[in-house]
Amino acid sequence: MAEIATLARPYANAVFDLARSAGRLTEWAPMLGLLARAVETDQVKELIAAPSFAPAVKAHRLIDVVREDIDDRCRRFVQVLADNHRLDLLPEIAAQYEALKAEAEQTLDVDITSAVPLTEAQVVSYTEALRRRFDQEVNVNVEVDRGLVGGAVVRAGDTVIDGSVRGRLTRLVESLQRN
Q1: Which fold would CATH assign to domain 107-178?
Q2: pTM, whole model, 2 decimals?
């Protein structure tokens, strides 16, 4: 995994620098995401792995799959990746690009999993509290997991705040077992 991240990093940095200098950080994200999803399909995986196709053919066929949703610069980026036999890195490049974009925009993606659906007021309250705690803008994604019994679990980057009843019960059991 580290090798893939290491190989993808220069490409992610290059496309990030290109997008930032053109003021197009937001436009590149969905294009890279679309390419990443396309590369993960079985048909495209087979195409990339096929030694009988030249890199230019692989690039052309991948571009044909997503032609309407990417611009000329993105098409040239795909051709560069194909020429360097790196099309399979697109999912990691897209992930690293998103991380660079979030860092540059000072935003943090936060997942809140609650036992019951949250009201709009609760989402706003969570958003404000998380914005203050992390001192940056947050993008909140809310999901429901009835298995939590009550409470919520908040995931923000490497930070996990488990305020669920299930989490509390687990910690209580662990505490009792240690004593």
Answers
A1: Glutaredoxin (3.40.30)
A2: 0.64
